[in-house]
Amino acid sequence: MCCMGCQAVAKAIVDNGLEDYYRHRTEKAQVGEALVPDALRELQVYDNETLQQSFVHVREGDVREASLILEGIVCAACVWLSERHVGAMEGVLAFHVNYSTHRAQVTWDNSKIQLSDILRAISEIGYHAHPFDASRQEALQKKERNRALRRIGIAGVGTMQVMMMAVAMYLGEYQGMDESIRNLLRWASLVVTIPVVTYSGQAFFQSAWRDLKQHRLGMDVPVSLAIGLAFIASAWATWTGTGHVYFDSVTMFTFFLLIGRTLEMTARHKAGQVAEELVKLMPATANRLSADGIESVAVAELAIGDRLVVKPGEVVPTDGVVVEGKSSVNEALLTGESLPRAKHPGDHVIGGTINTESPLTIEVDRVGQDTVLAGISRLLERAHAEKPRVAELANRVAGWFVAALLLVAASVFGYWYLHRPDDALWITLSVLVITCPCALSLATPVALTAATGSLTARGVLTTRGHALETLARATDIIFDKTGTLTHGNLAVVSVTLLGDADEQWLRRLAAGLEGYSEHPVAEALKADIDALELEVIEAETGRGVMGRLDDHYYRLGSLEFIREWHPTLVASGEPGTTIYLASRDAVLAAFHLSDEPRREAPMVVRELEAMGITVHLLSGDNPIAVATIAERLGISHFQAEQLPEDKLTYLRQLQDQGRVVAMVGDGVNDAPVLAGAEVSIAMGKGAQLAQASADMVLLSDNLAVLPFSVEMACRTLKIIRQNIVWAIGYNLLALPLAAAGYILPWMAAIGMSGSSLFVVLNALRLKDGRVK
Amino acid sequence: MEILYILIPLAVILAAVAIAAFVMSVRSGQYDDLDGAAHRILMDDDDPMIPKYGEDKKGKDASGD
Q1: Run of H or E residues at A451
Q2: Are the CB atoms for A230 and A250 separated by under 8 Å?
Q3: Degrees, nearest 5: CA angle A724-A725-A731
Q4: Which of A124, A439, A590, A656 fits a disulfide with A496 by CB distance 3.0 to 4.6 angstroms?
Q5: A228 exposed, middle or buried (CB, 10 Å; 0-12, 13-18, 19+)?
Q6: Averaged over B4-22, what is the pLDDT?
Q7: Please, which pLDDT band fits residue B60 given cuts at 50, 70 and 90?
Q8: For residue A34, what pLDDT is reported?
Q9: Given this model, what pLDDT does residue A446 score?
Q10: Which DSSP string corresponds to A458-527?
Q11: A80 touches chain B (CB under 8 A)
Q12: pLDDT score of A37
């Protein structure tokens, strides 16, 4: 066991007879942070009616329903564990977790159990639950998906029935069939086709109508024309008992086109879901100072002028000004740099940042939509909404293509009407069906779906459609240093002993002195060390701590702090950060901390260079640190002390040379460069806003998947090209044949389905057979 | 062949039933989680039908077994 938290979780699991969890789990669980009693008390705020309004749905009487996001789920056994543990509680009527999305639905009787109890139970077994406002995008997407499924189902069943009867009719034409039986079959086909056209076909008719109203010719216009004309002609033929019927073409056509559309929609939804998950909720509760003391309130109830207490380790609930206290605040949310900034009374703090050292009292000056975080989210939403250039171009080309298509169809109709009026209609239908860009419209989405699936299995999330295609064309890649090529955490690299004391004892002493601090330097000194228990007397932000053990006083801190006792101390000259430990009598040790590069980084640089991609390193850090890392990793193009504007200038220079640049970063200060690069990749543990704005996210934080991603992107591009060549080639070949009247509508429909099938099977080659 | 006058309309009715069943299944949310069912059947959480002496209803053994 690594900590009391894990031990408590294990005990809870065993006590409830759920040991099967250990037998079935396929992934090791994340080390959860034990919820301190304070945090558990804060859960009670979730019982607040006002807060519940946004995510709790009240059913009859005391029965309530809520949606939650569960954090920490890494495999199927985790889901099973949560469901069993929470489901067994008295008062919980239903608890169901969705394996794919990690959303949970809980229904409970509010008179028997409170929501906070449920949340506490979840944290007992080591997971965190966030309330989730399902009334937004998720619900809309669900509706869209269900509608698409219903349409496909109806089209599918209709197609099968109609094809059965069509086979009978074709055989009848060949062998001879009673006219009455033939009419029966025709009427039956008509009845079955009606729901297909009126319900499933709506997808195309509505879209075509929308396009036409905007005076634009979209892809759905010829499709709607084909379906509509074929249906009307066949209905007429059935009614009058003459001519040919094309119900089989109509239904098959609808069915296969719908499948293509749904694939595209699913990919889009997945991307959207990921983006939403990444921007986690701001804290829902805050500690407000009132006349009676500190009370836990919902952030939604805060007003300007309220005074809040933010303890060390807590997230600042909203924008404000420090009125009391001295501490440092981790602004990694914005900058991606893990070294915190000192805050004194009068300084501004931003909602969403983390207080690291000592309690702060702040006065709220901005709430809700006015906060910095809300403003940045709005900017990002706008950036999302702007379509990538490629899609705009495709839309315009599509308009001309469709116009040409309709012209061809009209002229074919005109020609045959003059020569063989009976056949004019079905020949035109064949032409319309054959030229329908069905395979063409499937070519790209199906390949992208398969590729993103393979990548996701390896821990790379693609949030934008164009990301893969652009990555394949990348000629250069720019890396940020801290947090990207390096872990972003300080670690003790070496210890210089300046006295006689034993190193291990000195490490334990340092860990004990840093006992109460959450500063990254403190974390590095405390990591994996059994701290000595001592009394911390003084802690000064940015300088150091002083403590007492067995009547000896010790100081641990920066050069200047120790110099107050030992003025002759000389700087060690090592790169990175150095912290000194001294007693009143002598300087005892110097701890050298630095940010280690990731183990896989050298190999990744090598493989990328081998693929012909030039690797660059741009960092805001000092030249020595940057040069050291660049040398270790074998990167020849690097720049230090880069401000965001400098990074952007460097990027533009590369792009002016005609190069396609990919950018890998983790902080929001990288945001302008990430937006400027053709394809941007964010690290999974980096600033959340950077993740939300990037085109791809490395969830596993492992750089080794980068060469694989580039290779996958190249393969995807190749397959997309093959698909497009095939689709266009097939169309070009078939069009003259159809115009000449050699292709009957049912042959056209089968040919079209066959070419779509070919395109899909070709794309399946992208599915990586290896499991992660 | 006159039997077809019954069979074909019957087939159409059956198709309508199939469509209704499908629409109902989509509405009930069966398609929301396509991976879950595959994992759930592997989880061995059948509570014993006959509780052992001393066990309460939830299958937890009171004797601490």
Answers
A1: helix A438-457
A2: yes
A3: 90
A4: A590
A5: middle
A6: 92
A7: very low
A8: 46
A9: 75
A10: TTEEE-STTHHHHHHT--EEEEEIIIIIEEEEEEEEEEEE-SSS-HHHHHHHHHHHTTT--SHHHHHHHT
A11: yes
A12: 56
Distance CA A95, CA A86 (A): 7
Strand-pairing partners, residue A540, are: A544
Tokens of A93: 């009527």
Question: Taking phi first (over 0 means left), then psi (-120 to 50 degrees means alpha), and beta for anything else, what does residue A518 get?
Answer: alpha
Given A480, A595, A666, A695, the catalytic residue: A480
Residue B59: predicted pLDDT: 45
The larger pLDDT score, comparing residue A575 to residue A338, is at A575
Give this complex's ipTM.
0.71
Place of tokens 């495999």: A75
Q: Do A100 and B12 touch (CB under 8 A)?
A: no
Please indicate whether, in this complex, the C-beta atoms of B19 and A154 are within 8 angstroms of each other: yes
Active site residue A248: no
Pairing of strands A637-639, A614-618: parallel
Q: What is the DSSP letter of B41?
A: T
**CB atoms inside a 10 Å sphere around CB A77:** 22
Q: Tokens 């039997």 belong to which residue? A: B3
Q: What's the rounded mean pLDDT across residues A681-710? A: 77
Give, in order, the Cα–Cα distances in Å from A127 to each of A69, A79, A119: 10, 10, 9
Alpha carbons A707 and A684: distance in angstroms, whole number: 17
Tens digit of each residue's pLDDT (9 = 90 or more) over A37-70:
555 666 676 777 666 766 677 777 788 888 887 7
The confidence band for A160, taking pLDDT boundaries of 50, 70 and 90, is very high
Q: What are A550's strand-pairing partners?
A: none
The tokens describing A362, both together, are: 């702040």
Closest alpha carbon within chain B to A88: B58
Residues of B in contact with A77 (CB under 8 A): 43
Cα–Cα distance, A563 to A570 (Å, whole number): 9
Using one digit for the tens of pLDDT, what is the confidence trace for A421-457? Answer: 777 777 887 787 777 766 776 677 778 778 877 887 7
User: Would you say B33 and A98 are in contact if contact means Cβ atoms under 8 Å apart?
Assistant: yes
Partner A contacted by B57 (CB < 8 A): no
Q: Which of A99, A146, A188 comes nearest B12 by C-beta?
A: A188
DSSP-derived secondary structure for A580-642: EEEESS-EEEEEEEEEEEPTTHHHHHHHHHHTTPEEEEE-SS-HHHHHHHHHHHT--EEE-S-
DSSP 8-state code for residue A45: G
| Structure tokens belonging to residue A397 | 């080309």
Per-residue pLDDT, A489: 72
Amino acid, single-letter form, for residue A244: H
Runs of H (alpha helix) within A176-286: 179-195, 202-213, 220-240, 247-278
Q: Phi-psi region for residue A658, left (φ > 0), alpha (ψ -120 to 50) or beta? A: left
Asked if A371 and A328 count as a contact pair (C-beta separation under 8 A), the reply is no
